Amino acid sequence: MGMSEFYGPASEEEAIATIHRAIDGGVDFIDTADVYGPYTNERLVGRALQGRRDRVVLATKFGNVRDAEGKWLGIDGRPEYVRQACDASLQRLGVDHIDLYYQHRVDRKVPIEDTVGAMAELVRAGKVRYLGLSEASAATVRRAHAAHPISALQSEYSLWTRDPEAEVLPTVRELGIGFVPYSPLGRGFLTGRFATNADFREGDFRQNHPRFQGDNMAANLALVERVREVARDKKITAGQLALAWVLARGEDIVPIPGTTTRKHLDENMAAADIVLTADDVARLDAAIPPGAAHGDRYAEGGMRSING
To answer: What are 206-236's pLDDT values in tens digits?
Structure first.
């Protein structure tokens, strides 16, 4: 996502080099969406995967609708839109099938059975291999899974966003659905790289998130310092510790840390080799228990679209 939008300017050359470095280093899961850019990130990923397509599981998403200028138009889960969006993504990616196709946000105006039914048609047509949902409630996941097997649920999950632990994680585990945490680094905040709102570049959408503003920012910085303290004891970075914590939550959890540079990619990849002891996990759970983060994770409009 950040290679095309939302976090300020990024170099396309460095982005493609980063994707290549990831694949050559053993990363085999690449995640994008039609809404990133909009549309430009799928094209970038498609270019980066030329000659490497068979080495990755490729995921993309539909449902958040924007026009060519980037204006947000709402959420669309109508069957006709599902088919239209899939064909457009296939063309932009330059591939003949999508391995994992997510509904990016649940359309509350359309029965989930109708949306998933259309997605299932894509599987039967050979355009999609597996189906996923993103930011869906436990009840919606159950209904969707009854209509057609759901292979993955993608939702925000990290040391400072632990909401899925209450209902969503138990549900997907009961149903045998994989869990894909996005923003496992707390949108970069858990790395300790940001001290004030002014540290974000122009155009960075985090500036508009309540967690990164005013008193919330100050309170959350205190939480990050607790993470850094544990990281110093283990002689690793705070970001690596935050990723290792997510990885330690279970083998059915596959985080997708975003990055725009090879430097940060290398740091993230090294987290896979970090082993946390039971004491390490206990320290982190005590340092940032569920609900410890101050402020909503999205502005008002974004909050309305989650847990659908």
So the answer is: 777 788 888 998 999 999 999 999 999 999 9
- Please answer whether residues 265 and 187 qualify as being in contact, where contact means their C-beta atoms are separated by less than 8 angstroms: no
Active site residue 36: yes
- The answer to whether the predicted template modeling score (pTM) of the entire model surpasses 0.90 is yes
Amino acid code (one letter) for 157 = Y
DSSP state of 290: T
**What gap in Å lies between CA 62 and CA 274, rounded to an integer?**
34
Among candidate residues 7, 36, 39, 157, the one labeled active-site is 36
Pick the closest to residue 191 from 147, 223, 169, 219 (CA basis): 223
| pLDDT tens-place string over residues 46-80 | 999 999 999 999 999 999 999 988 999 999 999 99
d(C-alpha 295, C-alpha 205), whole Å: 15
Burial 107-140 (b: 16+ CB within 10 A, else e): beebebeebbebbbbbbeeebbebbbbbbbbbeb
